[in-house]
């Protein structure tokens, strides 16, 4: 169930100034707050496996989990990727609030783990793809537990193109993490445990 709250905002700055005294995550849609529902246990396990893999390679300062907020154009006006690889410059910029604004350089890579259902598929494969492409994120991974695939999209000019779709024992291709040794089999086995 989607829960809308009564607070109404005219600008993203008004939304950023809002504090309801909780750690709850909200998406800003048409000026209204919509509570972000919790992730499934399977998706959390997959995102955690990726977090650990990335953190071992890059250190924990540059890898952020689901709590990192991205300001985007369109509706909703913000997104919470399951995993984000940030730039060195972001580390100090995010000390006060874990939000990457449109005025900042985009993160290097975002990962979304697709939840079951047509609406979630549309959101990750279509809506978020267009929003992340629009803000210039160089690489976007769509991790699909149902299809057992990892689709890697890279920005070519202003448009995402498919770098590859990894399945089974194929390594996940990545320009941002070119020496990454990760296969969908290992990733989804961790999510199934």
UniProtKB/TrEMBL annotation:
Gene3D superfamilies linked to this entry:
tt1808, chain A
Q: Which InterPro entries match?
A: Nuclease_put_TT1808 (IPR012296), Restrct_endonuc-II-like (IPR011335), Uma2 (IPR008538)
Q: Which Pfam families match?
A: Uma2
Putative restriction endonuclease domain mapped to chain residues: 12-181
Chain ranges passing through the membrane:
none
PANTHER family per the UniProt record, alphabetical: SLL0198 PROTEIN-RELATED, SLL0888 PROTEIN
This protein is called what?
Putative restriction endonuclease domain-containing protein
